[in-house]
Amino acid sequence: MATTEATTFSRGPMIAITALRILVGWHFFYEGLTKLTAPSWSAAGFLKQAKGPFAGSFHAMAARPDLLANTDLVTMWLLTLVGACLILGLFTRLASLGGLAFLLMVYLAAPPWIGYFYAIPAEGSYLIVNKNLIEVAALVVIMLTGSGRFAGVDRILSGLFRRTPRLATA
Amino acid sequence: MADENDKKKAQPPSAAGGPPKLDRRDLLMGLSTVPALGLFGYAWSRQQQYRSGKEAAAATAPAAAAGLQEINVALLGAGAQGQVLMEAMLRIPGLRFRAVCDIWTDYNQKRVVNTLKRFKQEPNGYEDYREMLDKEKQLDAVIIATPDFWHAQHAIDCLKAGKHVYCEKEMSNTLEGARSMVLAQRETGKLLQIGHQRRSNPRYIHAYTKLLGEAKLLGRIVTVNGQWNRAVTPDLGAPERYAIPAEKLKQYGFKDMHQFRNWRWYKGKGGGPIVDLGSHQIDIYSWFLGANPSGVMASGGQLYHDPQTHEWYDTAMVVYDYDTALGPAKAFYQTQTTNGSQGYYESFMGDQGTLLISESEVNYPGVLFRDPNAPAWDEWVQKGYVSAPKEAEVKEKSDSGAVADVRESVAPDQHTVPVSLRDPYHQPHLQNFFNAVRGQGTLNCPAEIGYETAVAVLKVNEAIEAKNRLAFTPGEFKI
User: pLDDT for B116-133, tens place per residue?
Assistant: First the structure.
């Protein structure tokens, strides 16, 4: 695949999407680093409050110390790594996919659906759509437009490991 | 240039088959977002600096910067408990340590003075507290952490010298001592706070005002039980080369270094474990039940330790009778010093729920069980008074496979008390005292309350001796 085949948009929109990618990455990165450096952060509180169709699995995760320890570890490192990758434009598609899968889980753990209310106070008001879902949508855009190949380390990688363009050999 | 793609597509196909082509533009664009990471790093480090700066400022803030009136304090008694209080006080802004007084000049006193110097404090060391009161005219407050049998004289002399006093519990080892402290406080009009520090602990305050007071989650409390189990602790020992001369020990009421170090075990000096440990928790019983006990039965003795070196009962099991506003209640308390298993806690059991609470942030830091028949607690969960429930698993079999008896009660939902204390345990109580010194707020454990608790607790040792139920008269708690 040619380096820039993924960049299907013109320069202006690509810059905007890259900016979006950096902002989302920044958010992930900070969330991850904060949890990593906090002395005793755990997802337990969040998981215990889970509601919705998958509440059972989330509660189970919180209840078993061994599962919880792994969940905490994976969450902290996933957020940090996804964040760093998004900022750098490194493995952008994989990072976006990881990020959006994680966010979807977070969304489903506390879905703002009709009839759902939470004891943890939210900073805004949400019905079906919340900021997690919007960030999921942003990551879909980032993933599909491959903004890392426009401005990001992916551009260098794909340059280095580029195979012969098919057009030229076919 | 309209489009990145155009440019790329315009490259001659000669690149095909050759080594991968990476032009300068690719490199620039490829690294173009790295500065964002740099910017993040900058923001992160600034924020960390800000945070640690704030913490450091809070720890050692000079009073002027905090806009506070500086309080000149002295520490009277620089042993283990004095050092605990000093460490908590170093985290409170607006204090100036002027003096440290301890008869163990070469060891405790020196150590505390040196520690304080590291925190830019310049306290003078004293052996005799009267000399300290004579010379340190600017003192506003004295923190007393001497052995119990010295409390009354120290507190009264400090109050009469015009100082506010924070005195460790037990208020005194005798009721006469405690009573004269209350009278001296009234006479001088100075503040006298007694060190039952749970009275200022945010979790206990939350439990008292919100859970019991406003939400009445327990319904009517009928039984209480609590304990402080402590493992065998060795003789505290004393380094030979720092031994205090015999005549000086005698002058201050100790027969030898062993008694000076282990005074808590000696009659006439301390009150034994029921006083050292139990008094904190029995204080909570009366606070939460809103009453003083009407009677006490107790059994205890010197079951384990050598009676020569441990004159007080190493084990005590106590039952108090209470007549609360809602009806009679019984409160059990146990303290023993031979096994530390299951530590310390207080458990209040009402007809609608149970509160299991302790000062520890690690063990029993606040759990509530809702009785299955009690009204729902959703409102209090919504308000954040208690956490969302962890529903009890329905167990039909034990872990070993034995079938549960059908007569077992349905297990109640479990909630946690969502309040914890990140500071040293004594800090809020000291803070409460210094706020009151500044005229902001009132004491959480004034002399009268300390006295009521002393009456309830000291009676236990009498009851053990009497091998009989002893009644309290309501007038007994008043002065």
Answer: 998 889 999 999 999 999
